[in-house]
Amino acid sequence: MRVCYTQAKDVGAPPFPHLLFPEKPPSSAAAAAPTMSQEELKKKAAHQAVELVESGMVLGLGTGSTAAHALDRIGELLRQGKLRDIVGIPTSKKTEAHAAAVDPELNLVKGRGGSLLREKMIEGASRRFVVIVDETKLVERIGGSGLAVPVEVVPFGWQLTMGRLKGLFEGYEACEARLRRAAAADDRPFVTDNGNYVVDLYFEDGIRRDLHLLSDQILRITGVAEHGVFIGMASSVIVAGRDGVTVMERRPK
Fold this sequence. Notes:
The structure is a single chain. The protein has two domains: 3-7 and 37-135 and 231-247, Rossmann fold; 149-228, ACT domain (Alpha-Beta Plaits), CATH 3.30.70.260. It contains six helices and 14 strands. The chain has helices spanning 28-32, 38-50, 65-80, 116-124, 158-167, 211-219; strands spanning 58-61, 87-90, 101-102, 108-109, 130-134, 149-153, 175-179, 181-183, 186-189, 197-203, 224-227, 229-230, 236-241, 244-249. The longest helix is centred in the first third of the chain and has 16 residues, at 65-80. The chain is globular, with a radius of gyration of 18 Å. The N and C termini lie far apart (39 Å). Belongs to the ribose 5-phosphate isomerase family. Its EC number is 5.3.1.6. GO terms for molecular function: ribose-5-phosphate isomerase activity.
């Protein structure tokens, strides 16, 4: 299997950088334990996820640096003959490094690489949606990491759409809305695989309201194509940490 990589586009510094590096000194036990790099943790979780793959499956191929490790492992198993007849459906035209943040209910934010609409369509059609992350992606609430919650909007009238998006949070959560740019030194808007723009929403303390209700409100805004909050879609989340790999399963309702 041949996998092509491109570098992630710079979406600018988040307005709440203090949330990305919480001031929590490591315990003496944690400090003494051998540490793995974030890339090693991603690879560990990805290989655990590939153990769920069986010959003859149709796979939605996610984007991101962790998914790239899974693709490499699947390709290796195909070459070894341990897997066969795998059909892959890509969720984007490119592979970009972008993070997924997961809350305790297995709701997550995806699409920081700009492929959120296609990813949600593929994953919504899947019988099982497995998310692969390292432990740094676990958050108390959606939007609480300091990273963007992306919303894909049509280019026509994007200023009006962005204003209405920001208005949803007035009086509720501290929110800053930004149109994503192509690059730090390029003032042109970032364009998704579907020819749309992305409005990035940054929250100082995350989203505290009912996510289902908020999702409906966002999607009712004319000009919004989709948002990057994946609510109730993940079947399980595989988390790689210093103490090993943990599998979080969705609780039955």
